[in-house]
Structure prediction request, 218 residues.
Amino acid sequence: MAIPDGKNKAAGIFYEKKEFISGNREDGKAAEANLNFPSIKCNFARLEFEGTVTVPSFCGYSEEMVKERIETLLEEKLKGSDQFVVEVKELPKARIQVFIDSDSELTIARCAEISRFLEAQLEEEALVPEHYTLEVSSPGVDRPLALKRQYVKNIGRKLSIKTKDGKHKRGLLKAVEEEAIVIEKEEKKKNKSKEQENAEQRIAFEQIESAKVLISFK
Prediction:
Protein backbone atom coordinates (compact mmCIF):
# COMPACT_ATOMS: atom_id res chain seq x y z
CA MET A 1 0.00 0.00 0.00
CA ALA A 2 1.52 3.30 -1.07
CA ILE A 3 1.58 6.34 1.16
CA PRO A 4 0.44 9.56 -0.58
CA ASP A 5 3.07 12.26 -1.06
CA GLY A 6 2.40 15.88 -0.22
CA LYS A 7 3.73 18.96 1.45
CA ASN A 8 3.81 18.76 5.24
CA LYS A 9 2.22 15.31 5.24
CA ALA A 10 3.19 12.67 7.77
CA ALA A 11 2.05 9.16 7.06
CA GLY A 12 1.57 7.69 10.54
CA ILE A 13 2.19 3.94 10.39
CA PHE A 14 0.98 1.03 8.35
CA TYR A 15 1.86 -2.49 9.37
CA GLU A 16 0.78 -5.49 7.34
CA LYS A 17 2.30 -8.75 6.11
CA LYS A 18 5.70 -8.12 7.68
CA GLU A 19 6.05 -4.73 6.01
CA PHE A 20 6.57 -1.68 8.18
CA ILE A 21 6.10 1.69 6.53
CA SER A 22 6.53 5.03 8.24
CA GLY A 23 6.98 8.57 7.05
CA ASN A 24 7.80 11.87 8.68
CA ARG A 25 10.04 13.67 6.23
CA GLU A 26 10.01 17.21 4.95
CA ASP A 27 9.08 16.06 1.45
CA GLY A 28 6.29 13.92 2.85
CA LYS A 29 7.65 10.73 1.27
CA ALA A 30 7.72 7.48 3.16
CA ALA A 31 10.67 5.52 4.43
CA GLU A 32 10.31 1.77 4.03
CA ALA A 33 11.91 -1.20 5.75
CA ASN A 34 11.30 -4.94 5.71
CA LEU A 35 11.25 -6.04 9.37
CA ASN A 36 10.70 -9.48 10.82
CA PHE A 37 7.38 -8.79 12.58
CA PRO A 38 4.34 -11.08 12.74
CA SER A 39 1.44 -10.33 10.41
CA ILE A 40 -0.83 -7.84 12.16
CA LYS A 41 -3.23 -5.54 10.38
CA CYS A 42 -4.14 -2.06 11.50
CA ASN A 43 -5.85 0.95 10.03
CA PHE A 44 -3.75 3.34 8.00
CA ALA A 45 -3.82 6.94 9.11
CA ARG A 46 -2.34 10.12 7.66
CA LEU A 47 -1.75 13.22 9.72
CA GLU A 48 -1.37 16.79 8.51
CA PHE A 49 0.96 18.91 10.61
CA GLU A 50 3.32 21.85 10.82
CA GLY A 51 6.38 21.55 13.02
CA THR A 52 6.99 18.66 15.40
CA VAL A 53 4.42 15.98 16.10
CA THR A 54 4.62 13.72 19.17
CA VAL A 55 2.61 10.51 19.00
CA PRO A 56 2.04 8.64 22.31
CA SER A 57 2.92 5.10 21.31
CA PHE A 58 5.34 2.23 21.82
CA CYS A 59 7.77 1.95 18.89
CA GLY A 60 5.29 3.52 16.49
CA TYR A 61 2.37 1.35 17.58
CA SER A 62 -0.73 2.87 19.07
CA GLU A 63 -1.55 2.13 22.69
CA GLU A 64 -4.65 0.25 21.61
CA MET A 65 -2.63 -2.03 19.33
CA VAL A 66 -0.15 -2.86 22.09
CA LYS A 67 -2.93 -3.55 24.60
CA GLU A 68 -4.79 -5.80 22.15
CA ARG A 69 -1.62 -7.76 21.42
CA ILE A 70 -0.89 -8.23 25.14
CA GLU A 71 -4.45 -9.41 25.75
CA THR A 72 -4.16 -11.90 22.88
CA LEU A 73 -0.84 -13.23 24.20
CA LEU A 74 -2.31 -13.62 27.69
CA GLU A 75 -5.40 -15.42 26.42
CA GLU A 76 -3.11 -17.97 24.78
CA LYS A 77 -0.90 -18.24 27.86
CA LEU A 78 -3.76 -18.61 30.36
CA LYS A 79 -5.90 -20.92 28.22
CA GLY A 80 -6.93 -24.01 30.18
CA SER A 81 -6.16 -22.44 33.57
CA ASP A 82 -8.47 -20.76 36.07
CA GLN A 83 -6.62 -17.46 35.61
CA PHE A 84 -7.88 -14.57 33.51
CA VAL A 85 -6.99 -11.03 32.42
CA VAL A 86 -8.68 -8.21 34.29
CA GLU A 87 -7.05 -5.16 32.74
CA VAL A 88 -4.06 -4.00 30.71
CA LYS A 89 -2.99 -0.38 31.20
CA GLU A 90 -0.36 1.74 29.48
CA LEU A 91 0.99 4.58 31.61
CA PRO A 92 3.42 7.43 30.88
CA LYS A 93 7.18 6.82 30.67
CA ALA A 94 6.84 3.46 28.86
CA ARG A 95 5.15 1.71 31.76
CA ILE A 96 2.75 -1.22 31.28
CA GLN A 97 0.53 -2.62 34.04
CA VAL A 98 -1.13 -6.01 33.68
CA PHE A 99 -3.70 -7.18 36.22
CA ILE A 100 -4.52 -10.89 36.36
CA ASP A 101 -6.94 -12.70 38.65
CA SER A 102 -7.75 -16.33 39.38
CA ASP A 103 -10.78 -18.33 40.45
CA SER A 104 -8.60 -19.96 43.12
CA GLU A 105 -5.15 -18.69 44.06
CA LEU A 106 -2.70 -16.51 42.16
CA THR A 107 0.87 -16.79 43.44
CA ILE A 108 3.78 -14.36 43.11
CA ALA A 109 5.71 -17.08 41.26
CA ARG A 110 2.94 -17.36 38.66
CA CYS A 111 2.91 -13.57 38.14
CA ALA A 112 6.68 -13.65 37.64
CA GLU A 113 6.34 -16.47 35.11
CA ILE A 114 3.71 -14.53 33.13
CA SER A 115 5.86 -11.38 33.29
CA ARG A 116 8.86 -13.22 31.79
CA PHE A 117 6.64 -14.66 29.06
CA LEU A 118 5.27 -11.23 28.12
CA GLU A 119 8.69 -9.58 28.19
CA ALA A 120 10.10 -12.16 25.78
CA GLN A 121 7.17 -11.84 23.36
CA LEU A 122 6.99 -8.04 23.42
CA GLU A 123 10.70 -7.64 22.83
CA GLU A 124 10.78 -10.29 20.09
CA GLU A 125 7.96 -8.53 18.26
CA ALA A 126 9.55 -5.09 18.88
CA LEU A 127 6.36 -3.75 20.42
CA VAL A 128 8.15 -1.95 23.25
CA PRO A 129 11.04 0.54 23.46
CA GLU A 130 14.47 -0.48 24.71
CA HIS A 131 13.73 0.82 28.20
CA TYR A 132 10.27 0.09 29.59
CA THR A 133 8.63 -1.20 32.77
CA LEU A 134 6.26 -4.18 32.87
CA GLU A 135 4.26 -4.89 36.04
CA VAL A 136 2.21 -8.08 36.37
CA SER A 137 0.13 -8.55 39.51
CA SER A 138 -3.27 -9.41 40.93
CA PRO A 139 -5.70 -6.45 41.15
CA GLY A 140 -5.47 -6.19 44.95
CA VAL A 141 -8.29 -5.41 47.38
CA ASP A 142 -8.00 -1.67 46.78
CA ARG A 143 -9.11 -1.99 43.14
CA PRO A 144 -12.81 -2.22 42.23
CA LEU A 145 -14.19 -5.49 40.87
CA ALA A 146 -14.24 -5.28 37.08
CA LEU A 147 -15.58 -8.64 35.85
CA LYS A 148 -18.54 -10.82 36.76
CA ARG A 149 -16.07 -13.64 37.31
CA GLN A 150 -14.52 -11.62 40.13
CA TYR A 151 -17.90 -11.20 41.80
CA VAL A 152 -18.46 -14.97 41.69
CA LYS A 153 -15.08 -15.50 43.32
CA ASN A 154 -16.05 -13.19 46.20
CA ILE A 155 -19.45 -14.68 47.09
CA GLY A 156 -19.67 -14.77 50.88
CA ARG A 157 -17.57 -11.63 51.39
CA LYS A 158 -18.71 -8.12 52.25
CA LEU A 159 -18.75 -5.49 49.52
CA SER A 160 -18.77 -1.71 49.53
CA ILE A 161 -20.78 -0.57 46.52
CA LYS A 162 -21.24 2.84 44.95
CA THR A 163 -24.16 3.06 42.54
CA LYS A 164 -24.41 5.42 39.57
CA ASP A 165 -27.00 7.52 41.39
CA GLY A 166 -24.38 8.36 44.03
CA LYS A 167 -25.64 6.03 46.79
CA HIS A 168 -23.35 3.83 48.89
CA LYS A 169 -24.33 0.36 50.01
CA ARG A 170 -22.62 -2.31 52.11
CA GLY A 171 -23.55 -5.92 52.45
CA LEU A 172 -22.65 -9.58 52.17
CA LEU A 173 -22.51 -10.83 48.58
CA LYS A 174 -25.03 -13.69 48.50
CA ALA A 175 -25.37 -14.49 44.81
CA VAL A 176 -24.32 -13.44 41.31
CA GLU A 177 -26.98 -13.56 38.62
CA GLU A 178 -26.73 -13.03 34.87
CA GLU A 179 -27.31 -9.27 35.07
CA ALA A 180 -27.24 -8.49 38.79
CA ILE A 181 -25.83 -9.32 42.21
CA VAL A 182 -27.71 -10.04 45.43
CA ILE A 183 -26.37 -8.68 48.70
CA GLU A 184 -27.55 -9.13 52.26
CA LYS A 185 -27.69 -5.59 53.51
CA GLU A 186 -27.39 -4.82 57.23
CA GLU A 187 -29.79 -2.17 58.45
CA LYS A 188 -30.20 -0.75 61.95
CA LYS A 189 -33.66 -0.83 63.42
CA LYS A 190 -35.10 2.48 64.50
CA ASN A 191 -35.37 1.69 68.20
CA LYS A 192 -33.27 1.97 71.31
CA SER A 193 -31.82 -1.50 71.07
CA LYS A 194 -30.19 -0.62 67.72
CA GLU A 195 -30.34 -4.22 66.64
CA GLN A 196 -29.63 -5.04 63.04
CA GLU A 197 -31.88 -6.78 60.58
CA ASN A 198 -30.75 -8.35 57.32
CA ALA A 199 -32.54 -7.71 54.07
CA GLU A 200 -31.58 -9.02 50.64
CA GLN A 201 -31.22 -6.49 47.87
CA ARG A 202 -30.71 -7.04 44.15
CA ILE A 203 -28.43 -4.58 42.33
CA ALA A 204 -28.08 -4.67 38.54
CA PHE A 205 -24.54 -4.54 37.13
CA GLU A 206 -25.53 -1.56 34.99
CA GLN A 207 -26.34 0.36 38.19
CA ILE A 208 -22.94 -0.25 39.80
CA GLU A 209 -20.37 2.52 39.55
CA SER A 210 -17.77 0.61 41.60
CA ALA A 211 -17.63 -2.27 44.06
CA LYS A 212 -14.79 -3.20 46.40
CA VAL A 213 -14.27 -6.11 48.76
CA LEU A 214 -14.23 -5.13 52.43
CA ILE A 215 -11.45 -6.76 54.41
CA SER A 216 -12.25 -7.73 57.99
CA PHE A 217 -9.43 -7.95 60.55
CA LYS A 218 -11.56 -9.59 63.24
The longest helix spans residues 108-124.
